[in-house]
Amino acid sequence: MLTxxxxxxxxxxxxxxxxxNIEVLSTTPNPDAPAEEEDWSFEQHLPQExxxxxxxxxxxxxxxxxxxxxxxxxQEEISEIVDLADPDNVPAAQRRVLRMQQEDAKFxxxxxxxxxxxxxxxxxxxxLEYTPVWCTEREHMHQLRRGMAAQxxxxxxxxxxxxxxxxxxxNMVAQxxxxxxxxxxxxxxxxxxxxxxxxASVTSTPVAPTSVADDAFAAQNKAQKLEExxxxxxxxxxxxxxxxxxxxxxxxxxxxxLCGLMQVLYGYAYDMRATQGEHTVxxxxxxxxxxxxxxxxxxxxxxxxxxxxxxxxxxxxxxxRNWKLAKLVVRDTADILRLGPRAVVRSLxxxxxxxxxxxxxxxxxxxxxxxxxxxxxxxxRQGLWTDLADELMRVDAAVAKADVGWSxxxxxxxxxxxxxxxxxxxxxAEDERRPL
Length: 436
Prior knowledge:
Blueprint: H1 2-6, H2 52-57, H3 92-109, H4 111-119, H5 122-129, H6 133-153, H7 166-176, H8 181-187, H9 212-230, H10 235-243, H11 254-274, H12 283-289, H13 292-296, H14 303-316, H15 323-339, H16 341-356, H17 363-376, H18 384-398, H19 408-433
Helix pairs in contact: 3-14, 4-19, 6-7, 6-15, 7-9, 8-9, 11-12, 11-14, 11-15, 14-15, 15-18, 16-17
């Protein structure tokens, strides 16, 4: 992928040693002093390394649980990075208990905030009505695919019906996907908002493929071109990818990584809606706070667990605490996943840039985001992302207010009653102030 190809080659360092940090200005030799001799019999000890057994007993965290003992040098900054006070001494199971206790306390301490956003949803409505870039890209891609399907269905078929094989039909679809080749070239230097070129007609005659494997490769290549034509990645983001190291991953739990990826994208999508696409100085806080993975180093055990965790935090911490908004962001996350790895990597690069601008949360790039940027590029382009998006939508449809563990319906009913009671009381107060 891009990171592998653009990784600069390492050059051998220059011969010799670095100059000393201390410069000797003058010295006075003592000719009567005896010559110093090295005591080679002195027993030297290498620094003792912790045994693997002890390391296995310590809590691990970060991408693929690859980190431990990361926070001891950061004791003064740790509260600005994660909510977990002592990550290197709190096991994963305990992290979840502490996280949920924090969420419960925060929500009930400020439940009036949720009630107010329910009855006075003026600002929330703006976030709900905002159209993020992935929605525009989704519609654009749907239109192009419909055009391709239409051209493939009306393509000139061979006269000999016996030669009409699944391979030849697939080749026609691949030929039709050339419709967006011109758009791919034009949008490479323009933002997504500028991608509005109409599809060019396909005039080439379908050619029978040499093999099914060759045809599948051609179709995948056409799909990649379509993805590149719709989803714009800025040059500075390409450079950011090139700066990441080349890595190979031995993944221990792919499901946990994908569910954690969903949480990262959820925080990003929420911030995009809350800020109308203009990230603020609070964006790093928002993205990290809404993800249990980033804020508590608590990896989800299932997609439903991932969704419920994000919903709880979206109702307890950010500026807008609204059930409709929290659920809409889940669908936003599914839209990003459905667009494929290019859209996912672009979103991760934006998160990475947001954290880089933060005084302390840039450490989350080391723990999670950099590895996610590299790992996503190694995953299959077809099938996986659509399946993950479909499953996320299925889980979202099944998750109800009761699943978050709070009495949301009762609070909403109470908010409506208080608003209704406040109306007559306010009118009575105005009547008392009127002159006789």
